[in-house]
Design brief:
The protein is built from four helices and no strands. It is mostly helical and 94 residues long. It has one domain (16-87). It is elongated, with a radius of gyration of 16 Å.
Length: 94
């Protein structure tokens, strides 16, 4: 018997490094998504980071608390890029 075909959800886009996607998302939320070809998610993450940054800057300026919030956002964007790269094809609309 031949093994069942691999599920299309488990194929990684060819030539895309997990480490690079994570680092790019940590630097600028959404940039890792651009790297793996997820443009809609990239725009959402980037605009979310900009919106949160603007709100935090208007409230009290860039404080250590604001930097922590933006760092957590970058980590969350990195995790999302990792999940997208590991478990979904580039052509999916998710």
């Amino acid at each position: 018997m031949t093994p069942p075909p691999r599920s299309p959800r488990t194929r990684r886009p060819a030539g895309r490094s997990v480490a690079i996607a994570i680092i790019l998302s940590l630097v600028i939320p959404g940039l890792g998504h651009v790297y793996i070809g997820r443009m809609a998610r990239a725009v959402i993450w980037f605009l979310g980071a900009v919106a949160i940054g603007v709100i935090l800057d208007q409230q009290a300026g860039i404080t250590p608390g604001a930097l922590i919030v933006l760092t957590v956002l970058g980590v969350c964007a990195s995790i999302d890029a990792l999940v997208m790269l590991k478990f979904f094809r580039t052509g999916d609309s998710r």
